[in-house]
Amino acid sequence: MNIQILSIFLYLFLFFFLSTTLTTTGTPFPPKSNDTNFIRTSCKTTLYPKTCFKSLSGYSSAIQQDPGRLARVAIGVTLFKVNNMAKYISNISRVADHGSSPRVAAAVHDCHSVFGDAVADIRDSLRQMRRLNGSGEDLRFQLSNVQTWMSAALTNEETCTDGFEDTPDCGVKDDVCGRAVKVKEVTSNALALVNRFVDTIQTP
């Protein structure tokens, strides 16, 4: 799936979720304090609670204190941000080829590859979340796939920044690593919220 098609898919996904907050006249329901507090409390279980709340609080009316919806929205938001990062690296890789040291250019190209893999992992995670069914151990098994893919995505993102170790300092390095760190925070949070959802599932 090319990047343009994936972007359209992401916008449609987010629109679908946001549309659940509209009345028949198109007026949004105001977020309920309990819904917002649920997100705030859930985000405290992540490594980056401020980033978590900032990125997800706008969807409180759609999430409605549902840990499954929270995890799914978190993955959708993550996919949107990781996809944007992949597009950014694709563009900057051409600049790096001409204006950076060979080691920095190689690190950028490696980032392009691993972020492409991360997009695929998170896309698979979102697809699985949309198809969840059943309960108990069966539901846990389905979510174990999501946990595996989100963990792989986070590892790929960390591989990107690790690739810049021992490379000369430059604007390209600082920019890519700075953006990648922010994306890693969102991905880490999404994985933590998936894990939290798994913990709520009761088994016989």
Mean pLDDT: 86
Strand content: under 5%
Q: N- to C-terminal separation?
A: 40 Å
Q: Which segments are poorly predicted (pLDDT under 50) over 5 or more consecutive residues?
A: 15-30
Summarize the structure.
The chain has 204 residues and is mostly helical.
Structure description:
There is one protein chain. This protein has eight helices and no strands. The chain has 204 residues and is mostly helical. Helix 5 packs antiparallel against helix 6 (102-130) and helix 6 (102-130) packs antiparallel against helix 7 (136-162).
State the main characteristics:
single chain, 204 residues, mainly alpha
List the helices and strands and how they pair.
Layout: H1 3-19, H2 33-43, H3 49-56, H4 60-63, H5 67-99, H6 102-130, H7 136-162, H8 171-200
Helix pairs in contact: 1-5, 3-8, 5-6, 5-8, 6-7, 7-8
